[in-house]
Amino acid sequence: MGFQFLFRSDPTVKLSIFGLDQISNPRIVTSSLEELEGVREAKLDTKKNIMKVVWKKNSRVTKEDLISALFRFGLAAEELC
Questions:
Q1: Which phi and psi angles does 72 have, rounded to 5°?
Q2: 20 to 30 A from 81, CA-CA: which of 1, 14, 21, 51?
Q3: What is the pTM of this model?
Q4: How far apart are the first and last CA of the chain?
Q5: Dist. CA 53–CA 4, nearest whole Å
């Protein structure tokens, strides 16, 4: 009988982003999000206007924090299921 290890991955959220066409360099948004404490990675698909954000399990970052950070850029976002 072996041991079964359960690996919990870091929290991930996919967001639909609105207003990217108003920003001259959308990649600056991802680099700014990655500067937030606890955010591990932010990837942006500019063709689909979808952003995937991964943050560390033990951080205090929430989905609401990420959406608020995007709002400061003049963007709106909603979580994709």
A1: -65, -20
A2: 21
A3: 0.77
A4: 37
A5: 28
* Domain ranges, ordered by start, for the chain: 12-79
The contacts found for 67-75 with CB under 8 angstroms, 24 or more apart, are 67/15, 69/32, 69/33, 69/36, 70/15, 70/17, 70/29, 70/33, 73/19, 73/23, 73/29, 73/32, 74/19, 74/22, 74/23, 75/17, 75/18, 75/19, 75/20, 75/23, 75/29
Distance, in Å, from the CA atom of 72 to the CA atom of 56, rounded to the nearest integer, reads 22
- The architecture that CATH gives domain 12-79 is 2-Layer Sandwich (3.30)
pLDDT digits (tens, 9 = 90+) for 34-47: 998 889 999 999 99
